[in-house]
Every structure is written in C-alpha cells, then in structure tokens.
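TL;DR need structure tokens for one chain.
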Amino acid sequence: MKQVSWLLFISILLFSTIPLIFSSLIENSQLVVLAATCYGYSSTDLANVCGGHGLCKATDTCECLDIYSTNSLRITGSVVLTQGNDLVSTNGRYKTSMQADGNLVIYDTQTSQAKWASGTVGSSQPYSLVLESNGALKIYGNGAVISTLASSCSATPATLVQQNDGNLVLYGPGHEVCWTPNTYDGGSNVYIWSGSTCSITTCYGTASNVASVCSGHGSCNYKDVCSCNSGYSGSQCQTYYCNGIVYNGASVCSGHGSCNSPDSCSCQSGYSGSNCETYYCNGTLYNSPEVCNSRGTCTATETCTCSTNYGGPQCQYPKCFGILQTMTGSVCSGHGTCNDVDTCACDSNWGGPSCSLPMCFGILQNKTSEVCSGHGICTDVDTCACDSNWGGLIVPSQNVLEFCRI
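>> reply
TL;DR here they are.
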C-alpha cells in the first residue's frame, strides 16, 4: 500500500512539473531560437555573426543580406529612421522613405513608382520609424505612436532591412520573418557580400579575399570601394609616388629607374641613390668638379657631354679649329699635331695657326713679299708658281736657288 502511495506521489509530481517545463520552454522560446551559432558567433551578436552583413538562420548557415546602416535598422547601428531620410538597397534600386507627410513609402527608384505606403498621412511632425527593443516596429508623429506595423518579434534583437529584391523585411536574429509588406517584385537577390560568412565582396571584378584585389595595395571593404594602404591612392589603389612624382611619370626616379612602391626606386645599372640620382663618369661622381676632366658635364652614367673645344669619351681630347685631336688626317690641316685648344704644332715646311700654309724654301706661303722672291706664289712645299716674265734656276751643286728671280 505504501509503495502504491509512493508511486502515486511521483506521478502527481511529474504531471504537475511537465506543464511548468513546457511553460518555461515557451516563455524562453527566444533562447531556444537564439542558440544557433555561425562559425563561433551567436546569432544575437549582430555586429560579428555572418560578417555583420547577414543573419545566422541555423548552425554555420548564414543568410547574406548586405546589412548596412544605409539599408537597415538594428541595435548595432541606428534604430530610428527620421523624417526625410531613406533606407536604400545596396543595389540602389529600392528605397524606404520616411516622408514629411507622415507616410512611410517604398519606392522603385528606376520608375519612381511607390510600391507600398503605410497610409499614415497626418499633421503631427516630426515623423520617425522606430525599431524598438522587443522587435516592435512603429511610426511616431511628434513623439506619439500613430501606427504599429509590428507589435513585436518572436526573437530579438531584430533587424529591419530594405532588400535588393524590393522587399522590406523585419527579421529576428535567426532569419525569422516578423513582418513584411511583401513588396517583392522580381528585383535582384544578388548581394554584395557572399561566402559562408558573408565576408566576401568584389572590387572591380576581383574577390575581396584574393591577394591582387585593390591592385594588391589595399582591402576591399565594400563592392568597388577599396581602402588603400598608406602611400597608395586611386579607385583601385593603383596610384603611388616616388619622391613626389607619380609612379609612371617620365621623370620618376630621376628618369633612371622604376618606381615599384611608394618612395622606393629600383635603379637602372650604373645608377644609385634613393631617387636614382647618383651616377659616375669614369669613376668620378657626376657632380664632381673633376668629372669629364673638368671639360664637360656627366649627363648619364659613363656619358660626358663635352664643352665646345673638347671631345672624346672623357672630354680628354682638345680640338684645333673645330677638329678633334685624334683626327690625325684632318686636324691641323693634316700637317701637324693639335697640342691644345686651337694650338697646332706644325710639321716641317708647314706653318700658320692650323698648319695650312706651306713653305717654299723656308719662307711661309703668306709672306708674299718674300716667298718665291716676291715674284710668285708658293703653291706647295718648295713649289713656286712664278709671275709672268719671271722664272727660276736651280743649280744644286752650287747651291743656287733662284726661283722667280730671273
């Protein structure tokens, strides 16, 4: 009898406890829903779960929705859409506007047609759309509720998002739909963010997780929006400078190298220095007073630009009357040696500044009163062309030289 009483007591206890357990589960149903985690983050951690751009609808299962402050209301951003402002889908096609007349309106921006309106036109400005902590979605006019779109959400924290497909949807943290005006009209459901954790986007056709995105010099934090590393600029982080000159400029790195990264020149052979500004001519620094034998300018590695009266690879040769010393067949008229600028040392039987004048029997051609006895022209070495009526006599055995004297 005692055993039956004991069993009866246990049965009564269980039957009285079970409803309490179910009641507790129902009251804490949000906790059951919110237990889902995606890649280590709770579905309620809106800032981090699914990259902050989606909702965790089951274990390690993200629904990417491109959630941003510009297209959503949630506790991690703003929970109020004030009068005159919009929630705009990330594809730019749809917007939800809190109008000055109190109406909340969803527009197709391509057609400018209203897809849905709250019908809350009134006269109690200012108006605002507010997402409350329990998931309620309400329109206020001058601080008073004028319309309740959703009284609550089955789980919180909630997110209101203007989607790329035209829908305006109030979600619980596990992707539960709490309210929507069903404004889907066949728009794109392709989102900027993708991947298992909604953390991959693209910049100019390159995925954000590829090393070459943003030219390899920045991070792709939003579709076609690069955040450039220090020293880089441009829409794709493709622009940088070396010593203030753009990387592809003709004069970058002094024109003697390539600018491979900000302020980093890779110099051509023979050049050095941070800007490839240093080079040598025959072992002498380009700007030394002794470079190019002090007779020219070192304009490039091993390249001398000589002064007017000098020549040669190192400006080591003088010119005599415009002809380089080494041009032995023509310098000093081919009859002497150029020892210095315009200074000829003439061969025997030749004279004049450029050794262009022959001698006739020891007398220079231009000494007209003396050469050829004053009665002829010295046309070559020891060769007189006598004037008319004048001639000459040569008697070598008697050392008689009487050119143009007879």
